[in-house]
Amino acid sequence: MTDTATISKGSDWGYAPAPESTDHIRLKDRYGLFIDGKFTPPASGKYFKTINPANEKVLAEVAEAGEKDVDRAVQAARKAHDKVWRKMSGRERGKYVYRIARIIQERARELAVVESMDGGKPIRESRDVDIPLSAAHFFYHAGWADKLSYAFPGKKVSPVGVAGQIIPWNFPLLMVAWKVAPALACGNTVVLKPAETTPLTALLFAEICQEAGLPDGVFNLVTGAGATGAALVKHPDLDKVAFTGSTDVGKAIQKALAGRGTKLTLELGGKAAHIIFEDATIDQAVEGIINGIYFNQGHVCCAGSRLFVQESVEEEVIAKLKARMETLIVGDPLDKNTDIGAINSRAQCDRINDYLKIGVEEGAELFQTRCSVPGKGFWVRPSFFTKVAQSHRIVQEEIFGPVLAIQTFRTLNEALEKANNTPYGLSGGVWTDKGSKIFKVTRGIRAGVIWANTFNKFDPTSPFGGYKESGYGREGGRHGLKPYVELT
Ligand code: NDP
Fold first, then answer.
1. Domains in the chain and their CATH numbers?
2. Among 166, 345, 458, which is best to mutate for testing ligand 1, by the most ligand atoms less than 8 A from CB?
3. Which mutation among 118, 246, 350 tests ligand 1's pocket best, with the greatest number of atoms within 8 A of CB?
4. What is the pTM of this model?
5. Tens-place pLDDT, residues 213-269
6. Gap between the Cα atoms of 58 and 46, Å rounded
7. From atom 12 of ligand 1, which residue's Cα is the shortest distance away?
8. Residues classed as catalytic
């Protein structure tokens, strides 16, 4: 018997735990609202708890903003806009935006740990994706602040005014960056409402604004639940609303703003088609599928949640996918070995489990990995469905969890037809050896972003946004400046 055979026989090849330290984290017991450059208590005196979804422990109490607080925040933003921010030269504004980017980098470790504690995502992702990308968005937009006339040649560029911004829980700090960086760079002031379940990194961001010496009232933060968001949208003194979240709430916001002349951009749900042709490099495509749907527990609006595999390679792809999925480590988000962390909230966990039941009842075949999950907290094992039909709810509706629906196709046209059979149009992906197929698919899928031989790649220079029920308006790149400027 060789040495290798001896080792592989009864040895435990599991990874030893590699937990990220939390010693350097100093969260306050209680956070107020951030209005006019100061942390202040809410008018109602009400606070809510934010918990760690991996162990259900309370991390801090956070203020619940009501209509009066929202009004105070909008007034502060208006004053700062009219008196200070819009009058400042782009060059000076850019220095503040740049300073924010630098402080995010300096506090990156703290921000990554808090992001994983409050939201449940693996530390590897918050450390290597969320936080560096957040800093990159501020760096990128700092560069634009004094070059707006080059972005829109021949036009006089001025800010829109006060922006009300509402963000979801899947990429808490990154969504702050996507919203706040272009707004500030273009001379607008902001009132931001983070998601109820993930307010902590937005609160740390408010501290960062203080540290950067950002003039009072340029950035304001109102924490709370959906009612706080609704109060913000209702406020008559907003010039612009930017929303990322579910299609249902997006539609409600659109109705609330109808006839008011307030500018609106919506980044809503998605149900991306991920197409694998028989000539693709299958091992790499399988990695792409994993990244496409299991990254951030599948809490990704552009997740590759509908997989289309060419019939001739179906067996191979599914066998390799199952084998790879069995190696995914589900568990403590703060462990550096973890691939899949905790589901963001009990409500979202219930929602995903409901969809798993619906899929089985509709007649699809469910595969789930055999990994163990912790007893406390909210968890869903990586899952996929086969034997699904286009009409199934698990194919049509956004699940927002680690659940993939797999279908097959024979021809490119069939793949495109199936891919476009969705009310959404946010993203898509294609794996093939042939450039011509890439061009046909990227032109044929009606979605804002299509990745070729890769998936879930983001960059501040590249515009992101949807078609159809995935919303309208773009974030990132030159296109992403447009919603924050008036051009005359
Ligand atoms: P929501 O759309 O409800 O939440 C997004 C943001 O809007 C949050 O800050 C939320 O506050 C706020 N909000 C809620 N109701 C209102 C309202 N009436 N007016 C203004 N703002 C409001 O998403 P959920 O958290 O409920 O998630 C439900 C589903 O939405 C998910 O399962 C997923 O399918 C989809 N989703 C899509 C996202 C995307 O990026 N495309 C992101 C998040 C969710 P609060 O969180 O405090 O309730």
1. 30-268+467-487 (3.40.605.10), 273-452 (3.40.309.10)
2. 166
3. 246
4. 0.96
5. 999 999 999 999 999 999 999 999 999 999 999 999 999 999 999 999 999 999 999
6. 16
7. 226
8. 267, 301
